Protein 1
Amino acid sequence: MRTLPGWWLLCVLVAGPAAAAPPRAPGPANPAPSLSPSLTPEVQLCLQHLKPAERDRAARALGPLDSLPRYRVQLEVEPKERRVWGKVQVELVAKGPQPLTELYLRLTPNARSRQVTLSGAKLNGKAVVLEPGPEPTLQRVAVDPPVPPGGAVSLEVAVKGTVPRAAPGAESLMGGAGSLLGGGAAKGGAEDHGAFSATADVVSLVGVVPQVPPLDDRGQPWDGPQGMGDLALYEPAHVLATLTVPAGWAAHATGTPLGEVPERDGRVRYSFAAAAVRDFPVLVTRGYQSATATVNGVTVESHFAPQDAAAGKRVLKYASQALAEFEQRLGPLPYTHFRVVQAPLSGGAGGMEFPGLVTVATSLYRAGADPSQVLAGMPGMEALQEFLGAQGAGLMAQVGASLERTLEFTVAHEVAHQYFAGLVGSDPIHDPVVDESLAQYAALFYMEFTHGVETAAALKQEAFVMPYQFFRMSGGQDGRADRPVGDFTGGALEYGALVYGKAPLLHHASRRLIGDEAFFKALRAYVDTYRFKWACRTCFTQELAKASPTNAKALGKLRARWWEEAHGDDDLGAGDLQSLMGAMGGGLGDVKLDAQTQQLLEELLPQLMGQ
């Protein structure tokens, strides 16, 4: 997840429905992919989602591709009533050393309250009882008789849910959370950033498809959502889905689109096939437009509201550029389709990542066109504007440029998540620093190679250094970045400062130590080694050490310094109002703060940050 970097904004202030395209007919210019005849027709259909050259690589990483978990999804959506219902069937092969004695299903929307229910469970065709799991998002089914290793099991459930209305103000930079950062909502422990919510024109159904969570060494499910950060991640699986929506609405999901079929009652049924994906998000929109591009065999789609068409087309450009850069440096994305969907995210989120589909906040599409809306309704803003006086007007142009830069950076960050942890898996709840720091740093070097060193340096200051400094100025304490999401008791401010701000700079320090050639060799090796697999906390450091053996010990010390210890003040500076104002330029550095003004701004700071 990309937390909206409202930090730098504070620095400035104080210092037609998209239709799924049917498959193209095979021909000389578009030959049908070669698939093994031993695979079932369903698996062959799913594998259309993988580039032909990537199917063998996936099989080498995962084993026989017909042994992956397989989901059949049938959902119907009634947006006006905010209802969703249908059936989900999962088939999987028991792969552990012990017989399979129980199955868990995770429904992330139930972290907030019981918004999705399961019923009518059948195990291998026989009715079984669904039991509550060890935490609210989990349901358990006993497997009796146990399934031996290598045996197959099928579980079918009926799904029904009521989608809550999106948080008030979710389409603004305030994020429906009372601050630019959404800190207050995250501290409540029930924020899903709008992943399961509805507005008049967008229904986000992320998490409505129940999925089997990975198990730890004790055979227990991985932890579920913690109220901030990501929601979940799963073992690679195949998915065949049909999504039926009213006329005038369109369905978006991960995978290759298999077409859309009008129903007799006027509704439309969309179909998707996905292969070896770690999640299956679903969104439904009304009146959206779309734009497409092709990057190295990947169809890139941007879906957006008509009033945001100009921004939506820029998002397509940014996503295409980022994917081209990452394919060059990280290796090919294995999938044939990638979608960016505009969505009214809340809780300070600028975007949310899922394999094959990401969402970017409506606020980022719109704020650049009218930067003044950033200030609307913020506590203490009248006093701050009085302090800024005539300089306030001149700063709006600076705010607008920063917002556009943030939009591009956010899109690049979400594209990078296709690799970390979409392709190279890691536990987003227990080890959030693994994928978030790499996605954040990949977005930074994308900006460097696309726009130059000076732009990247400015972005590093705005999106990495200033979040940490503002956190410290607001009374937060530096600490270990490498810890589970639930251990960030300081809420979203602490999580953002340490995971998104300080932690990614480990990679910058490592790159400076060993040089670009060795760094990017190690990064590519890391992706190649752990494609479709699970990486560990130290795996990337190990690849760096292989690329630069003489620096192995120093790389380990860097990792400890940036991720395990508390040297942020020494490395980034604790920050103060005067220096931060100077860092933003525009003449703010020449404004000398008297004691009274200093006290005023220090009193306003917690309000601006939602505390």
Protein 2
Amino acid sequence: MIKRLFILFLFVTINGYTQSVYKDAGKINDSTDYYLEIGLFNKEAKKSYTKAILYTEKAIEYAKANNLDNKLADCYLQLATIFYELEKNDLAIDYYIRAISIYSKREPNSNIALSYYGLGKCYLKKNNISNAEIYFEKATVIYKKLNFLEAIELINLQKAIIKKEKGKIDEASTILKGVVENISDDALLSTKTEAYIQLGEIEIFKKNYPQAINYLNLANQTNETNNNDFQLTKRIYKLLSSTYEKNKNISSSNLYLKKYADLTDSIGKYYNSYVAENTVDKIQFDKQLKTIEQLDKEKKSQQKTLRFSKLISILSIALISILSLLSLSLYKNNKIRISTNKLLKEKNRELTIEKDKAERASKARADFLSTVSHELRTPLNAINGITYLLLQEKPKASQLNYLKSLEFSGNYLLNFINDILEINRLESDKVVIEKINFNLSELTENIVTSFKEFIHENNIKCHLDIDKSIDFNLKGDPTKLSQILINLLNNAIKFSKNGDVWCTIKKREETSENVTLYFEIKDNGIGIPKDKQDAIFDSFSQGSVEINRTYGGTGLGLSIVKKILELMGSEIHLHSESGKGSTFSFELQFEKGIANKVKEEVIKPSQSLLTDKKVLLVEDNKINQMITQKMLEKRGISCNIIDNGEDAIEDVKINNYDLILMDVHLPGINGTEATSEIRKFNTCTPIVALTAISLNENREMLLSYGMNEVITKPFEPEHFYTIVTKYLTSTEQSNS
């Protein structure tokens, strides 16, 4: 009965169509529940999304005012669902994450599973398949733990759609057939109908038109049993019309085309008359609330039955275990098998111990490197910050060289720390390969241009050769590709002084949807000896001590390149001879993309807009306090400093600031907790996080606490000013 209630009160949008699967039924205990139900009523019954958002936001305000964290999570979940139906995917993602951040503090329940499921659908609409699969899998794990097997079929349908989008139509077909077979509940007939439609589309793709017509007719029959979902009916009629046409059955095609047109007209008339009607009266709504209350009573009764059933299951398992042990005892007379089993167990134990040791050693190494690099960022911020301030104060000529050397050393150390973090991140499970549109020609030319000064210093002739037949608009991960090309070009230029460097990109294969490209970075520099080539891709390896002393560097660049290519399903190839140069090559497959829109020119705000702006700096490190305050005051910005989160919360309650700069790692309550508390009474003032970010932190996590932006220590002065100026001037414009 519990699972039945779960199905009846959960509304999940599947592939653009709504069916009945939302949240656990509950009593109307306070104003939060009341506003949520009113908002849901306006969304589902009246299709009035404006009022639905209005009442849901009222529920949020009431939950915040009364510290009802669990109810606040329900509000965020409902608002995320509304934004999803309005196809505002970025807003929906934001509120799903807020809901998850609260639900995660408690035992897993159906609502956190629904939030993960909603995130998966949002990322699926944004064509971010990898993220969608991650969140669908998280939802599946929780549903299985809660024994909501019917809900898993909904996720299986989404997984099948993903497989279909990836071109894995046989796998998709298998999953869809399983969905059809496993659904027996009338409340999930819309899901079954959608599965039949997807099977029909797969058969259309295979040009198996008779089988496609069969599946579409089954979809139509199922939909009629489900009281005819008009939107699904329209899709079925349209698909049947086009499929009959492809199957040369023009009369049937015209018949369903006419049905499609008639239904479209009738739906239009229905909605026109529906909009003109008055709101459902209060009596009908009260009946709905009473129904919810009655179902809640039934749910509690069924929970008792479920607990008793679980107890019986545990006792049954215990009994089976005892019987199994008794059966095993019968084999004691077989001494050979016992001795063999003991030997195998001992070897197994030894292997397990060695495996645990290796895993602990690897984790200790990653934790050590992450901790060291993270702890170095705070003093390095002081070094780079003070150097920048001294350079801005017009130093003497004799001092300028020292400061430039100090600036170079600080930047070198920062690059080294970033490389260490990148290696740790690549070896962890926290790297996601993106698929976004980018222009290959523009990306490559920008990379080569960024090396202009380095090329000039080393007297290099750089040759860029890109196959003109390539469609430069691709879909992939431009950030990871940039990391690969930058590391390879940097090595080629560094080790080929007074020589030549070639960057070549050619087309290997091309289909209607994908293109495979060949990349080659070649130089005529010092080359790599044969006996060093196997180890050159190891971390901190540069071939020899002499090379490290002569050319410098961390020895991490090629290791990063190798690991990124492995994550992208490729590998690096090396051909080199000592004294004759080196050639690095690899192949990558990309989806064909679309042209990116031309970016609008950013107009820098006037300096006068920053004058008399008031900023609160929450920072416990005295040196960082001094540096940040000086940098703000140089732009005419007033700065107040507080060194802990507790005092910052109280100060914000009585003072108005244009911007808050919040260090994440503070004594007492940290910056994220302080931000969450401030957001309970102040949602307007921008809050920017300052953090020496580690592997356990990410931008999405920090923003989920209510922060507007993240600046990483040690920060580049121009980037720091850009972010600060953005939020101070946006405050000015909103006030005006």
Protein 3
Amino acid sequence: MGFIKRMLTNNRKESKTPSGITRRAPSHGRRVMGDIAANVEYVRNALFHTDDLQERSFEQAARPALLVYLSSVCDLAKIHEAILKPMLSSEDKDPERIIPAADMRRLTDLESGIELLLRGYSLLFRHEREEYYAIETAAIVQRSVDEPTNEKAVQGAHNGFIESLHVNLQLVRRQIGSRNLVVRRYSLGNMTKTEASLVYLNDLADPEIVEDIDQRLRAIDADNLMNGYLVLEYIEDRSFSPFPQILQTERPDRVAANLLEGRIALLMEGTSAALLMPSSFFVFYQSPDDYNSRSLAGSFIRLLRIFSFLIAITLPAYYIAVVSFHYEVIPMDLFYQIKGSVEKIPYPPILEALFMELTIELLREASIRLPNPVSQSIGIVGGLVIGDAVVRVGLVSYPMIIVVALTAIASFVVPSHEMSYSVRLLRFPVMIAASMFGFIGIALCLTAIFVHLCKLKSFGTPYFAPVAPFRILDWKDALVRLPFWKLNERPNDPRPQKLVQERESKEGKGHDRE
């Protein structure tokens, strides 16, 4: 137990450095001097004389000046057109009136300039001036805004997030034109220095939840935070829970809809997905397509998704329990057909089910890693050739093939990949319990899952709301999707400051509200 405890807890002891290696003292900042050579030498030493650090010296208004930049992250054409060309052709001594830069900062601290240098800024030093300018010249390398492959849109907007934080914020701003939309900026990771933005509506989001998320982000002391998926594990409540507590999405319309319900989004540079907090269980089964179709169709699809959760978890376990213990629950004619197929299998149903489930998981992972043309052939080979061969050899029965196929289809229905992974994991302990105790084992596992869902919280809000705590008014946009004019109040689980969102908009003699 002591070994497991040490493995699951962080080692807070002082780490020893190897001999001959000294730890770098934290920098407290150094003021710029009037000597250009001394300033540039400090920058060179701070960046360990990296080869992509470039310098360009010139004279501006008959006085020496020097431009320093990293060629690997800067746009050289922008440097020439926006800085060098105006500076060399003007006699004005004030760079702020000469350089047409959108982001230009006057600084006196060299450490601040070095941080900006790594983000694509150029540093302009002038002779006998105890200040310098940081000018934004970053090279923009990004892909086009396309429909996300992981979240296909049947109707509605077909744009998705990309790896650029600036573009992602622009997509959210286009969806919500409110002045209450607030953006808080962070720099995460001691070594990666990844830019991140916390986005929320100031008049809707709960200030306590916003402050809680802010404290969790600022408390992270890690070197590697390259993307939002790494940050997720640091800020969620229960990392060892099988259920995700933070929703990830690549669709701007989904982010906007959740922001309008009082939730908070986290966007990061280099990540094509947003993290939505707090998230309840039923949020993972909602899709923007539900609101782009009629209410009856949207409600049916949403109920089908929730029902697929039960199918994916319990169907293999139910089959194992019936074949092993409770064969009397199926009709006699069907029983004889199943019995004739199962009797040819030389091992218990649990091993048969585990063999097929693991085979499906292997095929699924193989189809993801391979190129598209090859992955399609893998699916055909796995579904037809291997499935037919294992039945003919006598390794698996025909009913088990049907059960595993229905289970796989049910797990694909979930619109969230994180929840889909949870479903895939949870069915294994339920299968083992069914093989040992039959229906009683299934009931015990489902009870344990239900109790865990009721106890789980996401940033202080109930995870299984509106079922626990029970709030019937929130069911009209959780389990089903009623018409918009019936959704008078926002969901209560993210604790929005204003509940009312619809004010009897469908009125008049020509409207039938029944």
Protein 4
Amino acid sequence: MTPPEPLPPLLPTQHRSPAERLLHGKGVATAVGRGRAEDWTRLDQGVSVHTWRPGPRWSTGRFRVGFHWFDSRELADWTTAPHWHETGPAGGPGGVAGWSQPPTESEIALALCHADPRLRAAALRLAEDGALPAATLPLVLIRCADTDATVRELARAVLDGALCGSGAAADDAARALVPLALLLDLRRHGSWAREAVLDRTGRRGEVVAEAVAELLASRAFACRRAGVRAAASAGLLDAAGAYAAAERETDVSVAVEAARTAVRLSRRAVEADETAREDVLGRFHALMGLRRDPVLARTVLATALDEDLLGPADLVRLAVSHHGRTTRRTALAALLAVHDPSPFLDTLATARDAAVRSAAVERLRTAGRGGELARHLTDSHAPVRALALRELRAAGGDPYAAYRSLCLDPAAVTPAAVTGLAGRRDPEDVPLFHALTRHALGPVRARALAALRMLGALPGDGPVAFADDPDRTVRKTVLRAVRHQPEALRVLLTAAHGDVRATALDLLSTRHGLAQREIAPFLEDPAPSVTRVARGAVRCNRSELPLPFLLDLAAPDRPRAQRAAGLALMHDDGARLLAALRLADDPDATLRWTARGETVRLLRRLEEEVGAPYGDEVRRLVERHASGIPGWQDEIRRRNRTTRGR
């Protein structure tokens, strides 16, 4: 009879973690699963997290296995794990409590990963008696990078003893530890572990290449990051490969590691061959142009600055055109601190960032180019204009003469030039501002009107004369000028543009106490914005509005804003039900579902049928929609559940 094949090792399940399997007495090989580098570090972290505080702990959750629910403490009671006692049974020095004699493999593994450094040291001292299992050697390697100095020294002595032999067995043991040693190199004290393992490995280059391939193929971010670092250290990665890895990597930490490596390798490539600079910098700018996590761009730029990879032209390019504000300003600061920006002032003056333009304007006078300051007086950013004004005065120029010359030229005048000239507050400029109120550009007309108001030289009708201007900017200027004048606002209630009527109505109702009887006619205004303002103004006193007027307002042939206002302002349940039934098939989706919701609510709320004068039409419409009302209820419930879920 053929003996049955041995079962494969039991791998970690979703119900028990590797640390919990050790707690239940499973062997190290069974608990750790495949034995990859990340499996060992995950095991170490899992035990440490559960043992960092003595005593009972709260439950971390409940698990369902089959038809039964289990508390997490039923699956893993960490109070039974080995722990440290301050004093022994006879009052002597303490030691490990709950430790078998001799300790089992699972107990030793738990102690090696324990949060208490005294337990970790006690487990490592077992090696002096030869009681340390060979399966725990990866955990000993992890302890070589421990944060506790005593544990670290003990682990390194144990590892030296375990790897001191010669032959195929010792070489295989060292080769198996290489991926974990490269992963530990990310830690502060991990370099010793890496060198100790690699020094005892034959065919070092081949072994490192295999370990790097394993790490780069891992799903764990830390492993891929360690693989990038190890590949660069071993010469397995060039600058182009590192840039490609940074561009395709999805995790920011791994991308940052690859980008740093790429920049350092780029610097070495440029030092070895100056002709490679153009290609290297092209890859660098391509990486900086990726619109990903801003941390990546900032880190790459900081590394490039530390490595002195970028020249002034590269810094100017980043300062002018990079999409990240922090990156633009970091590049500008580096340029100003190390290089002379004079050859690049024209380029910097065209930057999208106002801070970069300000830096260029500030240096024009010292560069002997004070005559060019006048063209920056019309910058789109006020601080840049103020800086240009100050610098032009310091250079002995007259900024107002420049502003006046711009305002006299209809083709060259800009809104900023009008504002700058108005800052002088000179009555002699009033005729010029009057002429500019007829300019073809609306923003220029608006600034000219504001200047005339500031000088107190508005025409006889005041700003109201400009309320019908086709440009919205001018109309806003008019409304700002008369917001405290109720007489002028009443005149604007008949303006040609709906936005003017809406703002005037809003200001009158909120600031100047417009009566409701004066507001109600604006519910029928053809402009939706005016109807919405009037609806909000009469909402509190809607019971004073006649029901026939509201029913007519909510008629299906009315504009959308008026239909919505009529339904919202209805203050009688029967009339509201009639209006809602009329709008139940409205072409506007939002209004349609509002009406259907009102229909469902009112039909459920009303205890008796609607009487005259709406009863006949309500019954007819209810019969017409009888087949659809249950579907409306289901859809409303579904929408409410979705809204609550958000």
